[in-house]
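Let us practice reading a record.
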Amino acid sequence: MKLFLDTANLTDLETAKGWGILEGVTTNPSLAAREGLEFSELVKLITDLVPGPVSAEVTDETVEGMVGQGKELAAIADNVVVKVPMTREGVSAGARLVDAGIPINVTLVFSAAQAILAARIGATFVSPFLGRVDDIGNDGLGLLRQIVEIYAVQGYDTEVLSASLRHPQHVVESARIGADIATMPFGVMNRLFNHPLTDIGMAGFASDWEAYQQALAEKRS
């Protein structure tokens, strides 16, 4: 399972890239609005920084508008993937973008039926939103499990991108279920490193090494 960041913050992206685990980026209008840059400029900076897929979302609500925006976004860099919403207009626009050879990510997916539609138009990625499903009292991981099973049975090429992940366990369970990609906020990715026994072990090693160095110094003196 590949690990993506769901952010438009360049500092966070640089940090995660330095860890050697960042394989792509997803953005949305809300995330981009926090950064104070022109959207096309921001997308270009992200695509220059991250060699993997960078999902950039359209904002128009009409088919023609989304197709036009999608083509403009795709022209920014070869690794741009155009995000379209799971609406009738978004699916129609997505189908046209796919026909034009432009990869798409169908976002705001909350049911297996919607995921089937995304696969049928040839989407590169489908993005079920686990956390938001959980928020309304339903089972986000259960939805992911349904989609992964259907895609395997049907042989769809669309990759399942597990989104709206709120904590490390969402990431772990996404991997267990068989998601192709997990995209997450920087804070969630940062917490993947954490375990109290690792901290205890590191503190013990540091203490032992310090004592060893002190003993050597005393022996030399």
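A brief commentary: The chain has one domain: 2-194.
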